[in-house]
């Protein structure tokens, strides 16, 4: 190359440099920060893979067998993951848990069934002859009266109430009371009070039995109505006082037939008085129930 041409090229390069200093001083635009995702654990990554061969996969545990990768169940099928919010990982809804049905024979229900089974024994011992017959009759009725309170107490305290027990409890009470009243009316005690007035036991017995029949029909009708009507015929304190007075009166009248007691005649007047008191409470409670129902029906 001639020296003149080389000199010319060197002068041109010095006049116009390829990279100007001004261009080098221009700062570069800042790049937006990129959010880096934390590395997923090996178990999460293995959920997306299914190992087709029984050989150990990349994500299998170091101590697993030849076909026990974290993403497989040993046969190439994917493991079922625990459900979340009632839906399985496959998307199928899980079946709802079925409620456990209540037990039929709880302790209060067994006591109630025992009262029903004691009615034939009460009738049998009442007509038997012998010094122990009247004592057995009184003992059976007294045991039934105690279990009537006991089964309700156990059902409330131990939460053992069942619909079957709630149905059977008033039935057992009515059977025991009605049978005792009929027995006392058919074979009254030979005392001066009952001999001169044989109707003294018949009138309150008819009132008590008639009230129970009417109240059973009213409660059955209330069960087919709305909740307010059903709550109007719920057992109240007046009914509890009636039951307590009734059981006490019948126990005294049955005990007055026991020849082993020297106070037979002294037990008859308080027994008859309490029987009339229980009959009055029975009629009063029936009027209260009917009045409550009438107020609801008029609204």
TrEMBL record:
Entry superkingdom: Eukaryota
Instruction: Write out the annotated subcellular location.
Output: Membrane
Give the residue ranges for region: Disordered.
60-95
**A Pfam family the protein falls into:** CDP-OH_P_transf
- GO biological process annotations for this chain's record? glycerophospholipid biosynthetic process; phosphatidylglycerol biosynthetic process; regulation of embryonic development
Q: Which GO terms describe its cellular component?
A: cytoplasm; membrane
Keywords, in A-Z order: Lipid biosynthesis, Lipid metabolism, Membrane, Phospholipid biosynthesis, Phospholipid metabolism, Transferase, Transmembrane, Transmembrane helix
Q: Which cofactor does it need?
A: Mn(2+)
GO MF term (any one): manganese ion binding
Membrane-spanning intervals of the chain: 267-290
Location (main, coarse): membrane
Q: Which membrane topology term applies here? A: Multi-pass membrane protein
InterPro entries, per this entry? CDP-alcohol_PTase-I (IPR050324), CDP-OH_P_trans (IPR000462), CDP-OH_PTrfase_TM_dom (IPR043130), CDP_ALCOHOL_P_TRANSF_CS (IPR048254), Phosphatidylglycerol_P_synth (IPR004570)
Which PANTHER family does the record cross-reference, listed alphabetically?
CDP-DIACYLGLYCEROL--GLYCEROL-3-PHOSPHATE 3-PHOSPHATIDYLTRANSFERASE 1, CHLOROPLASTIC, CDP-DIACYLGLYCEROL--GLYCEROL-3-PHOSPHATE 3-PHOSPHATIDYLTRANSFERASE-RELATED
What family classification does the UniProt entry report for this protein? Belongs to the CDP-alcohol phosphatidyltransferase class-I family.
Q: What is this protein called?
A: CDP-diacylglycerol--glycerol-3-phosphate 3-phosphatidyltransferase
Q: Which organism is it from?
A: Triticum aestivum
Gene that this polypeptide is encoded by: LOC123097830
């Amino acid at each position: 190359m001639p020296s003149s041409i080389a000199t010319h090229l060197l002068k041109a390069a010095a006049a116009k440099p390829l990279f100007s200093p001004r261009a080098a001083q221009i700062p570069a635009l800042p790049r937006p920060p990129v959010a880096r995702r934390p590395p997923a654990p090996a178990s999460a990554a293995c959920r997306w893979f299914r190992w087709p061969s029984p050989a150990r996969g990349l994500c299998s545990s170091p101590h697993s067998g030849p076909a026990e990768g974290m993403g497989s169940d040993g046969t190439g099928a994917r493991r079922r993951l625990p459900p979340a919010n009632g839906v399985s990982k496959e998307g199928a809804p899980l079946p709802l848990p079925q409620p456990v049905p209540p037990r039929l024979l709880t302790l209060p229900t067994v006591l109630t069934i025992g009262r029903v089974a004691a009615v034939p024994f009460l009738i049998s011992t009442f007509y038997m002859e012998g010094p122990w017959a009247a004592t057995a009759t009184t003992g059976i009725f007294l045991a039934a009266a105690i279990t009537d309170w006991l089964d309700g107490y156990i059902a409330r305290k131990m939460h053992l109430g069942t619909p079957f027990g709630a149905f059977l409890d008033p039935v057992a009470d009515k059977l025991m009371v009605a049978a005792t009243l009929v027995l006392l009316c058919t074979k009254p005690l030979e005392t001066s009070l009952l001999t001169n007035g044989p109707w003294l036991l018949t009138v309150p017995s008819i009132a008590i039995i008639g009230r129970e029949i009417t109240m059973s029909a009213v409660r059955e009708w209330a069960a087919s109505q709305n909740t307010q009507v059903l709550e109007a015929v719920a057992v109240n304190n007046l009914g509890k006082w009636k039951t307590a007075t009734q059981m006490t009166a019948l126990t005294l009248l049955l005990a007055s037939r026991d020849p082993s007691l020297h106070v037979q005649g002294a037990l008859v007047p308080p027994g008859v008085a309490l029987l009339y008191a229980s009959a009055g409470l029975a009629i009063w409670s029936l009027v209260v129930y009917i009045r409550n129902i009438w107020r609801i029906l008029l609204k």
